[in-house]
Amino acid sequence: MSQLASGYVIADALIPELAELARKKNHEAFWALLKKGALAVQPEFEQSGVAASVAACFLEERGIALNYSQQHADLKIIAEESAAICCPSGVASAILQKIAALETDEDELAEYFEAFMEEDFDDAGEVMTDALGFIETGLELLQQKGGWLVVFVA
What we know:
By secondary structure, this protein is an alpha+beta fold. The chain has helices spanning 15-23, 27-37, 49-61, 73-82, 92-101, 106-117, 124-145; strands at residues 6-10, 39-40, 84-88, 148-152. α1 (15-23) packs antiparallel against α2 (27-37) and α5 (92-101) packs antiparallel against α7 (124-145). It has one domain. Strands 2-1-4-3 form a four-stranded antiparallel beta sheet, with helices on both faces.
């Protein structure tokens, strides 16, 4: 699988500068500014970005959209240059309520992950559970702080 996923809650004021750095492909400055100016989702997600991406797809297939990057020009650039899922604070509460209302278990999550990946994984259910937990933690932080949750998945 790919590199580890990471998530940040980013204030609206920081987004244009991050987008410009992403557009210029100045990765070192982009990550330095992000780490200095945004709030990292804690605890860190210790699984692949693929797992977070698959968890987002799982939610989307159940009518729970996370990615709103196409609605914001600067976030569209960040998402495209950095393989990120971008969610605004205005929908965080509704998304958390929908996630809480899901009736799913680790076996269903494992089955979804393995079907998506077209491979068997011993810990697929745990990986998906952790990925959904990471997304929920990010959304909770987003609710508190405002701005945008950006989860980097590759």
